[in-house]
Model the fold of this input.
Amino acid sequence: MKFKQFGLLIVSIVLFIIFSIIAPNFLSSQNLLSIISGMAIVTIVAIGVTFTLSIDGFDLSVGSAVTLSNTLIISFFVWHGMSIGLALILTLIVCLIVAGINLMLILGFKIPDLYATLSTMFIVEGIALTYSEGGSISQGMTRMNGQETLGKIPASFSSIGSPISVTMIMLVIIIIAYLFMHKTNPGRIMYMIGSNKNAVHYSGINATKYIALSYIISALLASVGGILLASQISSAQVNSGSGYLMTAVAAAFIGATTSKAGKPNVIGTFLGALLIAILENGLVMLSVPYYGLNIIKGLVLATALIINYAQFKRRSL
Done:
């Protein structure tokens, strides 16, 4: 049991030691900062996925929410010359459309979460692509209609994407999410819904509002991830969030192996993201081709799922 709870951390430490020995410059301060800043967005998005998993749901639309958020925030600066405060608020509000579509399909039309959020993923990706006129958005660009853009990305916004800033934002979100899920009644009820939705219904608890809350949180955290991505690269790229979807999902599922009951949890998700970040960075340092990284991530995820479901099967026998 102890190994199950701390095994993910142990594996991460072992990998860290191995790469420190065999990968040149792995321990350099610049590379360590790269690992932390690189995993911050994945962790934040994965925590949103964790909320939906806690109610036995599954949000596949987080990648498209990252893309939409990335597109909106940069366009507000470059195309419309908005201030940071207004751009941030509008981006978060507009990105709630992702949660709205999910909830309409899941609660309104009773479509299973997986299929509903898969549909939303394509819809929102298409909205972002249409809005961006099918291309990237950057400072000083010329729009498709020939219009020159005069808006500038504020230097203070770009500073949000510094390794220290994104790390602090990630830690704050981890702490708040952990306290919410494990120390408050709404968090406990979400776990209850995930364990036995019918029992929650018969106990008189309105499960609908907690399901809605989980998808709203997921969309908002994905939006935060897109904003941080925009602050790091100072542009909006086509399908920029697609790469975060499967990594975030993998982190959430791998993190579930740290729970006694195999349940998604915030600390486990963070450790899952850390494991993937160390693994990816170390392999890149060893000059492993980028197109081979998904094979490694897939194998790690498969191993985590085997461990998790094997234990679940033993408990059910």
Q: What stands out?
A: The mean pLDDT is 91. The beta strands are 137-138, 235-236.
